[in-house]
Amino acid sequence: MYLQRRNRILRNNPSIRSLVxxxxxxxxxxxxxxxxxxxxxxxxxxxxxxGYYRRSIDGTIKEVKELxxxxxxxILLFVKAADDTKDNTGKESWNPDGLMQRAIKAIKDAVxxxxxxxxxxxxxYSSYGHDGIVENGEIVNDPTVEALVKMSLSHAVAGAxxxxxxxxxxxxxxxxxxxxxxxxxxxxGIMAYSAKYASxxxxxxxxxxxxxxxFGDKKTYQMDYANRIEAVKEALMxxxxxxxxxxxxxxxxxxxxxxEVKNAVDVPVSVYNISGEYAMIKAAxxxxxxxxxxxxxxxxxxFKRAGADLIATYFAKDAVKLLG
Length: 324
Ligand code: PBG
What we know:
Elements: H1 14-20, E1 30-37, E2 43-45, E3 53-56, H2 57-69, E4 74-79, H3 99-110, E5 115-120, E6 133-135, E7 138-140, H4 141-158, E8 162-165, H5 172-182, E9 189-196, H6 203-209, H7 229-241, E10 245-249, H8 255-264, E11 269-273, H9 275-286, H10 292-306, E12 310-313, H11 316-323
Parallel strand pairs: 1-3, 1-4, 1-12, 4-5, 5-8, 8-9, 9-10, 10-11, 11-12
Antiparallel strand pairs: 2-3, 6-7
Bound molecules: ligand PBG.
Ligand PBG binds next to helix 6.
């Protein structure tokens, strides 16, 4: 047989494959999400996220030190607000002595160079478990944006490097940017969850923070998974309003959206490899149906290949260890 071109030549052995690999993961690609709880010496394993914990601030600091020593440069903070602090205004979210604000300060003191990103949305603080303020059974946009601005400012005051609004209200990026400018927070960034879809894969996360919506669903603010062009519209608007980074979420079922957004914007794109995606790999691996370590690296590489510059993932620590 005569062949002019033999593609297998470049796949022949590990050395040659490494010469031509197009996508290489590195520790600084990852954002490690962390769940924080009140108390001391608390490490609660989230039942639907085996191997992943919600920790009190003391344990969180140890974890952050370890992440830093592994080469991970950013963390994304979520807190579990105490039940008696929840209401429909979400006002605990901008309490200067709230759990989030205390956590930001403590982590900044302990590991100053770690880039601290903070979740901005009302759901952990809302008695309804919604990302916004509820009036007559509806999630109202503009009053929610006012609350998100207060929350973002309080994170900036506490020392957050980047706020990450995950709520999908209209106009919040512009409003937060304006408030930062007015208050002289000219070094605080915004990572916008621009294309966040109404997804069934958030289930384990809502267990982690006890933040499932008390009524209805999130489809009047999170996007319909049928839509692609709308994701580009959302991302472009957020960039226009002042987002430094735009995010696509969830990850695996939305790789096409990651690529589409990457091609459309001139800012870094992040992707969120969410709780349900973590749970699926863990569950299948626990049954011996897939090889967990291989599944982790293949999954994370697919995000980068799709165009993600940053990957928020519960596998950050495992991945860095696997990369060696
Ligand atoms: C809520 C929020 C959610 C996640 C991050 N921020 C859940 C939701 O929108 O209901 C999900 C993260 C994950 O599933 O890992 N503002």
